[in-house]
């Protein structure tokens, strides 16, 4: 059932906005959702179980007392759960929760989670869910990553941890994920990972209020939304803005992402961070004033690493990993007054079984851990298959505009980058020296072309010590951005 919903949503996107009002967009792209959900479910539908917070008590008890597939209508007012941290609603398969206007489920800073366990095909529509205190990396809604859930016209805000977890076939549509302590969404499911995830027409804003990267340095555990080992995601028509960290962060063995027609705006760090992952289409998005906080921080401490608005770290196209594309295709996007452009990076020391692989315990999708060991990794096919590679990336038909005065930049902004580091670690690594620097720069089919630039852009190539201007970028040996324009005019040969 969850799969069928995903298909219907995909079909809906092919129709005009009038036919699909939940994802309608104006001329400026996606707009506000928080505070603008439609006033639905003013009365209980036929057959629904009405829940009045002043009369009926605990929503969890009501749920337990009714069979699977029950529709619950939550009357206006504040609904609460149990009096201790484990007060929670445990839905049954096919249960539906409809919120009347101003119906709120409030954890009161006491309950850890709102909706838990692994029932399938649960629907939550029209509710506001706030005040829960989920633990690190745990979530408030769909706490245990049940499959086929639909979250629609719902506000999930002001919670600790993640506002929302995800399962296979989950659809999150026209909802507000706002001001949650760690993530708006944490898309992680134990086992084989999530398939068929859809995020459409949502507002994802202000998340990571707990400043987790400062609390646990190097944790990689913050942002508007985090994806781990998700195989197939459609992310379209969302407004992702003002998150304290990355906007969207796909971290470790994600594959087959379509990210289109979104507005990424004023996220502190990367708008999109695609890390040790595969096969992505990124098209038709607008990126505006992102990465300013991170960029100023790096510049202020003299760190020359090229921060990015779109950051591909050990991520590329891989034909052997099944997806709708066998590349990373970045096209038709507009970048305006961000700190930086796109960085293609590959850490020479990061590979399967290397101590430098921060995705502890994970290997690539093209190799077994047992083949990536000292004495074996030097030989084919392990030598190629044990690395996450930034390869087969095509960047074309995009517009990059920058006015440094508008973003308060005096140095180290306005950079596009294609680079690696000098390999040194571990002792048994076959990738030491300039091996990976040479590969990512010249031999892994990474190509810019037919783009339009306005403003003072620079290009970091091979390693952090080499920066060239547009002429050097287009000239041999780099030969990038053929048929591109650097004066603000139209691209093309």
TrEMBL record:
SUPFAM superfamilies: Pectin lyase-like. SMART domains: PbH1 (SM00710). Residues 1-24 form the signal peptide. InterPro entries: Beta_helix (IPR039448), PbH1 (IPR006626), Pectin_lyas_fold (IPR012334), Pectin_lyase_fold/virulence (IPR011050). Residues 142-291 form the Right handed beta helix domain. Keywords: Signal. Pfam families: Beta_helix. This is Right handed beta helix domain-containing protein.
């Amino acid at each position: 059932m969850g799969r069928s919903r995903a298909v219907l949503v995909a079909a809906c996107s092919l129709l005009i906005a009038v036919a699909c009002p939940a994802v309608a967009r104006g001329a400026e792209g996606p707009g506000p959702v928080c505070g603008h959900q439609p006033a639905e479910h003013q009365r209980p539908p036929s057959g629904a179980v009405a829940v009045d917070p002043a009369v009926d008590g605990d929503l969890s008890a009501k749920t337990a007392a009714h069979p699977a597939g029950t529709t619950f209508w939550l009357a206006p007012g504040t609904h609460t759960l149990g009096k201790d941290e484990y007060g929670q609603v445990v839905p049954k398969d096919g249960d539906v929760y409809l919120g009347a206007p101003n119906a709120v489920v409030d954890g009161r800073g006491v309950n850890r989670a709102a909706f838990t366990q692994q029932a399938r095909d649960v629907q939550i529509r029209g509710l506001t869910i706030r005040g829960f205190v989920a633990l690190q990396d745990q979530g408030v809604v769909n706490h245990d990553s049940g499959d086929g859930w639909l979250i629609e016209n719902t506000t999930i805000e002001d919670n600790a941890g993640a506002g929302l977890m995800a399962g296979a076939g989950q659809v999150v549509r026209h909802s507000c994920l706002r001001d949650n302590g760690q993530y708006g969404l944490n898309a992680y499911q134990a086992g084989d990972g999530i398939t068929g995830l859809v995020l459409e027409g949502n507002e994802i804003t202000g998340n990571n209020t707990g400043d987790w990267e400062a609390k646990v340095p190097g944790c990689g555990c913050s942002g508007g939304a985090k994806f781990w080992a998700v195989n197939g995601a459609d992310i379209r028509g969302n407004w992702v803005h003002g998150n304290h960290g990355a906007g969207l962060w796909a971290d470790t063995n994600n594959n087959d992402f379509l990210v289109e027609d979104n507005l990424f705006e004023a996220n502190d760090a990367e708008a999109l961070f695609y890390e040790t992952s595969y096969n992505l289409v990124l098209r038709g998005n607008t990126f505006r004033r992102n990465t300013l906080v991170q960029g100023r921080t790096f510049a202020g401490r003299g760190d020359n690493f090229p921060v990015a608005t779109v950051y591909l770290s050990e991520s590329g196209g891989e034909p052997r990993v099944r997806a709708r594309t066998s590349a990373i295709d970045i096209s038709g996007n507009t970048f305006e007054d961000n700190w930086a452009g796109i960085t293609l990076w590959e850490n020479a020391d990061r590979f399967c079984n290397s101590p430098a692989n921060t995705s502890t315990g994970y290997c690539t999708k093209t190799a077994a851990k047992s083949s990536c060991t000292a004495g074996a990794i030097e030989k084919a096919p392990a030598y190629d298959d044990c690395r996450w590679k930034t390869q087969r990336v095509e960047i074309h038909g995009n517009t990059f505009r920058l006015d440094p005065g508008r973003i308060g930049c005096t140095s180290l902004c306005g950079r596009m980058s294609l680079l690696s580091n000098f390999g040194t670690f571990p002792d048994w690594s076959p990738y030491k020296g300039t091996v990976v620097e040479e590969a990512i720069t010249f031999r892994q089919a990474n190509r810019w072309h037919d783009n339009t630039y306005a403003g003072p852009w620079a290009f970091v190539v091979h390693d952090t010590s080499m920066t060239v201007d547009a002429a050097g970028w287009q000239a041999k040996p780099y030969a990038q951005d053929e048929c591109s324009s650097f004066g603000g005019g139209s691209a093309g040969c």
